Structure formats: structure tokens, C-alpha cells
Amino acid sequence: MAWRLHLRSAVAGLAALLAILAGLAWPMPASAKPLRQDGTAAVKSVDGPALLTIAVGNRTLPVHLYGADTPNPGECGAAQARAALEGFVRRAPKRLTYNLRAAQGRKLTRDSAGRLWVNLGYRVRGRHRTLSNDLARAGWARAGVPTTLDAPTPEQDSFSSAAVEPEGVGDASSSRPPTTGVAATCGGRFHLPLGEPVVPSAPAVWTISERGVTTAIGAIALSPVLTPTTTLTLGKLAEIAPVELVVWFTPCLAYLPTLQVTAFSSSKTGPCRAAEVAGFFSDGRASTTRGLKVGDPDSAVQQSFPLFEPDREAFGGFLSGPGNQQWAWQAGIDIGDDDQVESFFTYALPVRPE
């Protein structure tokens, strides 16, 4: 019977030891808890034009503002953009809301340096704002994640525009003259290497026929009928003017800062160089060869383009009037809340010879 007593004592001792170990292991340290995709955070430091380190609980996370394309260190405007972000952080509440970007499989996404993509926001007088929005309104950021002509097409989530808040990066009015931030300091080029000359930008003149067909935007010639020889690719576009590419609502969004024009492609496969341009829209105070310009009242449109019929619900419309468009590069306008022409646009509609 003695051996049973010894066994019982051993079991009791083991149970006591396990209880002690369990007490040491519980509760789980906060650092071991799963990281929530959203919550509140405090900014510990500003590390670059769109780079920060934030504190979430007892975690310290290096992050990158999602969808805010800014100059990088070694590029024109980088120091000013960083200083601007530091000022916005100082003036914002101490606790910010954060949302970490996740791919479709719910895996958190990171930039090429391993920083987590994040939206950082706060409320002012009942309105939601973001640090990305603050940078954009000051002229030091624009919507998109930088890419190159020959980079592989990113996965779908990378160019989701869901991060754009009601007052997000991309909502700055194109009718405002670009007189601040990168536009004023770097000629509109967000990725101009330090030491390279700054070429002043000027809005391209849009050549639009009376029937509303765009035949040229500055030095960019357009054909009303698309054929293999007239199709315009982003690679060809880069031979005409400097192009700065980003991924946003499309995998290939091309800013042409010297012409104050933005082009985009609807292609989702292959590198951007071979992607066909699907459309253009104007930035800044663009004008047309028929006299109409950004900032004119909507009542002046029909004087230059008699076929135009305003669509109040759409806040603009095609200059060729309503109905089916017969030619590629039909031109249109956006009308702002102030009843003024806000921007011009044109699309390579799928009209091809049989």
C-alpha cells in the first residue's frame, strides 16, 4: 500500500505544479493577443513624408499611410512633406482611429519596406478627417501607391479605393489652381530627384471639335477611330511627357504633371507599359481650343459646344450631347456644386472598325 501513497503524493505534487504554471501563464500577455485590424492608436514618431510609428496597446507598429503618394527621401519636396505631416500630427487629437489594410484573405498588407498599410483618422467638429487627407489638401500627397511601367500588376486589394474617406486623398477639386505643395515647389512632380531642374507645369490645351470629339491634349494626339496603329499605350504616353504611375482604383493610373493631365488604363494584367489608355481627365485650370475653360459657368458651355445638354443628376455630361457615342475620345465635362466647369474628361470608348 505504501507505493500507492507515494504515487498519490506524486500526482498531488504534479497537479500543484501545473496549477502554479497555469497561474503564471494566465492571463495571456497583451503582446500575444491577436492584433486588431482597427481601433485607436497614438503616434509615437513621424519617420518620413507618409511614414509613422504608432502605439496600439503595448505594441509599437511601423506604418505607411495607405493611398498617400508623397515625395520620398532624396526627392524634391520630401523634407517639406515630412514637416507638414509632423504639424498635422501635433494638431490632431492624441488618440487616432486606425484601420490596417488587409488583402482578400484577411492577411494584413505591407509596403515594400515591411511597414503596415494604415488609415489614420480623427474627428473635428463632428467631421471625419484623415492624415492622408490633410497632406493632400496641403499639396504634399495625392491618391495612389507608386508603381513603375514595368512592375507586375499588383493583387486586386492593392488598388482598392475603399480607403478614400468622404474627405479622402482624391477629392481635392481639380478646378483649384495648383499653387501649393509639390505643384509650387517641384513643378507638380512628386518623384523628382533632388538636384534635377524643376520644369514649371502648365495645363494642356484640349483640342475638341464642335461635335465634342477630342483630337489632342497638348502634344498627345488622339484618333477618333481606334485601330492597332492608333491605340495609345502608357508606354507611348511616357515618350511624350514625364509620367508618374500609381496603383489606385485601377492598376495603372498615370499622372502627367507637366501637362496637368491624368490618364488611366482598365487593364488588370501585365505591366503598365503595354496597357492601353482608357481615358484622360484634366487637373488644374485646363482650357479648350473653342474657348471653354475650367472655372467658366455652366451657362457658357453651349456657346462653345451647341450639342451639349447638361445632365443635372450627373453634374455634367458629354459635349456631343446625349445618346450613344459614335467616336472614340468623346469629350465631357464635370460641373461642380458652384455651377462652374470643374474638369474635362475623355474616354477611349470601344468603337472600333468591323
Description:
Strand 2 and strand 3 form a beta hairpin. It is built from six helices and 20 strands. Mean pLDDT is 82; it is low at 1-28 and 156-177. By secondary structure, the protein is of the alpha+beta class. The strands form four sheets. The protein has an eight-stranded antiparallel β-sheet, with no helix packed on it. Strands 1-2-3-6-5 form a five-stranded mixed β-barrel. Strands 12-11-10-17 form a four-stranded mixed β-sheet, with no helix packed on it.
Topology (elements, then pairings):
Blueprint: H1 2-25, E1 38-46, E2 51-56, E3 59-65, E4 68-69, H2 78-91, E5 96-100, E6 116-124, E7 127-130, H3 131-137, E8 142-143, E9 145-146, H4 181-186, E10 205-208, E11 214-217, E12 220-221, H5 234-240, E13 244-247, E14 252-256, E15 261-265, E16 279-282, E17 287-288, H6 301-304, E18 316-318, E19 330-335, E20 341-347
Parallel strand pairs: 3-6, 10-17
Antiparallel strand pairs: 1-2, 1-5, 2-3, 4-8, 5-6, 6-7, 9-13, 10-11, 11-12, 13-14, 14-15, 15-16, 16-20, 18-19, 19-20
User: Which stretches of 5+ consecutive residues score pLDDT under 50?
Assistant: 1-28, 156-177
Classify the helix fraction into a percent range: 10-25%
Overall mean pLDDT stands at 82
Order of helices and strands: HEEEEHEEEHEEHEEEHEEEEEHEEE
- Beta strand %: 25-35%
By DSSP, the count of extended strands is 20
Strand order of the largest sheet: 9-13-14-15-16-20-19-18
* Mass-distribution shape: globular
Biggest sheet layout: 8 strands, antiparallel
Look at the helices and sheets and give the structural class.
Answer: alpha+beta
